[in-house]
Amino acid sequence: MIPIYRKITHPSFLSYSSSIEAPPEFHTPWHYHPEFELILILNSKGTRFMGDNISNFDNVELVLIGPNLPHFWKKEGPIEKDAIAYVIHFSEDFLGNTIFDLPEGMRIKKLLNNARFGISFTENKNSKIVNKIRHLIESKNFKRILTLLTILDLLSKKRNYKTLSSEGFVDLFNKKNSQKINSTIEYAMNNFKEKINLDEIASSVSMSKSSFCRFFKKSTGKTYFDFLREVRIGYACKLILENNLSITQIAYECGYGNISNFNRQFKDTVNMVPKEYKRKLLRSNVSL
């Protein structure tokens, strides 16, 4: 699937947009836009697609997304009656070009820089940040600016967060000459469960196998199969968290022909074997 460009609009008398989606717009396709997006989803669960990261979300979902990072949320089954999303879009220069270059703004500047990978924050429904976001929707005049700055400041101090997409994906997607790269990403996203033939991929973008390998490595800093491994293992982590399949079934579901290769590549990516990863989740009482 190729991400589509989505135009974000807001009234000319406002510096950024804020809205409530009740229920959340889970039907929105994989898309990107040049604005930052801060989204809070409450009382729902499903799957989050952020760049080349595939993860589950549950109950309280708070994510900051940088410019032009493809993303969407997918909901299996009916949407919960009380599900709601608070969505904020703002441009990098909505307060001018230099405010975050001030000494007092450097921490927020670092936060926004890291947002290019997508950042997931661990929160509860009654946290200070969640309440600030809910109240921001009702804020007016200059209080809207102060509330958003306060939220960004609070997020910049958080230690319990996780960056989502890989640096290779972010770098390659933002390249101007990315048509060939996007085509190979689409192929990987659509076929990662199957055996991938490098000759076929190279041929699809009118390149020889050796030329394609050099081109992809130069463009992304990693080999195509390194990228494919990250997509497969990200999906494997999602399936382990769902706890519906055995480790062997998950290996085959993610495109691995044998369990030993799956275990090795999983450990190379996650720094632990799948069974250890699953035990860690169970000890943490993480479930869907």
Features:
288 residues, alpha+beta, Jelly Rolls, Arc Repressor Mutant, subunit A, 7-stranded antiparallel beta sheet, 9 strands, globular, RmlC-like_jellyroll, AraC-type DNA-binding protein
Can you give a write-up of this model?
- This protein has 288 residues and is α+β, with helices and mostly antiparallel strands.
- The protein folds into two domains: 4-163, Regulatory protein AraC (Jelly Rolls, Sandwich); 167-283, Homeodomain-like (Arc Repressor Mutant, subunit A), CATH 1.10.10.
- It contains eleven helices and nine strands.
- The protein has helices at residues 106-114, 128-136, 142-156, 167-173, 179-191, 198-204, 209-220, 224-242, 247-253, 259-270, 274-283; strands at residues 4-5, 17-21, 31-32, 36-50, 53-65, 71-74, 84-90, 119-121, 161-163.
- The strands form two sheets. Strands 2, 4, 5, 6, 7, 8 and 9 form a seven-stranded antiparallel sheet that branches. Strands 1-3 form a two-stranded parallel sheet.
- Helix 1 (106-114) crosses helix 3.
- The model has no long low-confidence stretch (mean pLDDT 87).
CATH class of the largest domain: Mainly Beta
CATH superfamily of the largest domain: Regulatory protein AraC
The percent range for strand residues is 15-25%
Beta-strand segment tally: 9
Chain-averaged pLDDT: 87
The CATH topology of the largest domain is: Jelly Rolls
Query: Uncertain regions: pLDDT < 50 for 5+ in a row?
Result: none
Give the fraction of residues assigned to helices: 40-55%
Order of helices and strands: EEEEEEEHEHHEHHHHHHHH
The CATH architecture of the largest domain would be Sandwich
Helix and strand composition category: alpha+beta
Largest β sheet strand count, sense and barrel closure: 7 strands, antiparallel
- Counted by DSSP, the helix tally is 11
Structural domains: how many: 2
- Assembly classification: single chain
